[in-house]
Amino acid sequence: MKQEADRKSVGAEFARYTIFNILGMTGLSCYILADTFFVSRGLGTNGLAALNLALPVYSVVHGCSLMLGMGGATKYAICKGQNDPERMDAVFMNTVYPAVILAVCFVLAGLFASRQITMFLQADAEVAEMTRIYLQMILFFSPVFLSNDILHCFVRNDGEPRLSMMAMLASSFSNIVLDYVFIFPLHMGIFGAVFATGIAPVISLLILSRYLLGKKKGFHFRRVRPEPALIKSEVSLGIPSLVIELSSGVVMVVFNLILLRLAGNVGVAAYGVIANLSLVMTAVYNGLAQGMQPLLGRAYGKGDIQARKQVFTYGLMTVLLLSIIVYVGMYCFADPITAVFNSEKNAKLQKIAAAGIRLYFISVPFTGFNIVVSTYFTSMEKALPAQAISMIRGFLLILPMAYVLSMLAGLTGVWMAVPITEAAVCFLGGTFLLSGRSSRETP
Fold first, then answer.
1. Which of 45, 17, 31, 47 is nearest to 144 (CA)?
2. Given 2, 77, 265, 424, which residue has the most CB atoms within 10 angstroms?
3. Spatial CA neighbour of 81 closest among 19, 159, 22, 153
4. Which tens digit of pLDDT belongs to each residue from 342-379?
5. For residues 188 and 178, what is the distance between their CA atoms, to the nearest angstrom?
6. 2 in any annotated domain
7. Tens digit of pLDDT for each residue in 24-43?
8. How many angstroms separate the Cα of 268 from the Cα of each of 226, 295, 356, 420?
């Protein structure tokens, strides 16, 4: 009876954390999806191409935020499981210190290097200025993005996934409303789109400030000495989260360069539709993984092996269910989904994007598995396998795969590069899990 009650308790907690986080992360991803929709409607193909060229900069900022937030929150969850309040505050403050340094670096890059970054991203004369404006404003708002992402991670790991979700959804809704107002009634163009994206996390921070001012929180702003070893450990555990975000930016740059050669700006715009849908898909799996992470970290801190196994099993079952839903939806509705973003009714864009969606999203079950397994290893403080999974799927395999397959099969090869890469890494992740089966530390 006790085992049955414990299983139900873990299942209920898993549902509460993961549902709230999937909803919140899906809403958060609508930052970029809303930009894509309104920019495509208000600024056409060139606006869509400029947005897609600038997205890697957003990925860098958001990736660094999650690296610190997820790494720090993982250590925090373990300390919370061990009931060590003093260490919990030390972990929080040693997450804040490097965030301040990164924020200063990003703002300075926006002030002095926005044109050079635009040139590096290969924006041509038609879209260069719009690209520069978008990435510069993202860099200016980086302190807000950093603060928001880190606070979300700590609030969620402190037992408040519902508040984290509410803040995410409120910021996303405000972004969608402001996108429309700034681009259409106020005619602010690409600046309006990125300004809305920058304001949205401010709304989230205002909601989360309620928690900071309350007495229930387990972390506090205190004068504690910087601990380089602790910061290094947090960064090490957060690297998989950084790589997930950063790799999406790097892959966008590489795919954009390949598609410019194969199909010009229309090809880049078509990939913009696919890439933004992919961001939403990845956000769903990240929401699942981030919902699991506090439960895994706390169970690890307590030494509760059975609870860890249950959470991990529930995660894999959820990946399978979500993957079926996502792929069937993408396959059946590829044409109408593309049409939503194809305001100019460009026949070439429609054909390229719809065909690409049906091939690209074959990757969904493998992507979900890889993200969940990487988060599992991170939560167990096993940084090496988590980093290997993230690095191989994010850089080491996908980039050569994209170049080789594009030369062999053109556009079809580009779209198939992601499914083939994710499937190969899925095999690797399974091998890591099986190789540790003899250990009591693995599921």
1. 31
2. 77
3. 159
4. 777 788 888 888 899 999 999 999 999 999 998 898 88
5. 11
6. no
7. 777 766 666 666 778 877 87
8. 44, 40, 12, 21
Amino acid at 194: V
Distances (CA, A) of 289 to 42, 62, 85, 221, 293: 35, 17, 25, 27, 6
Q: How confident is the model at residue 215 (pLDDT cuts 50, 70, 90)?
A: confident
> Is 247 within a domain?
yes
Q: Residue 288 is part of which domain span? A: 13-435
* Domain-embedded: residue 7: no
Question: Is residue 4 a part of any domain in this protein?
Answer: no
User: 381 near 300, Cβ under 8 Å?
Assistant: yes
pTM of the entire predicted model: 0.76
The span from the CA of 262 to the CA of 180, in Å, is: 33
Cα separation, 44 vs 38, whole angstroms? 9
Residue 246 CA from chain centroid, whole number: 9
| Per-residue pLDDT tens over the stretch 190-210 | 888 889 888 989 999 999 888
* Closest CA relative to residue 18, chosen from 286, 279, 292, 241: 292
Say if CB 68 and CB 235 are below 8 A apart.
yes
How far apart CA 99 and CA 146 sit, in angstroms, is 7
Residue 114 and residue 135 in contact, taking contact as beta carbons nearer than 8 Å: yes
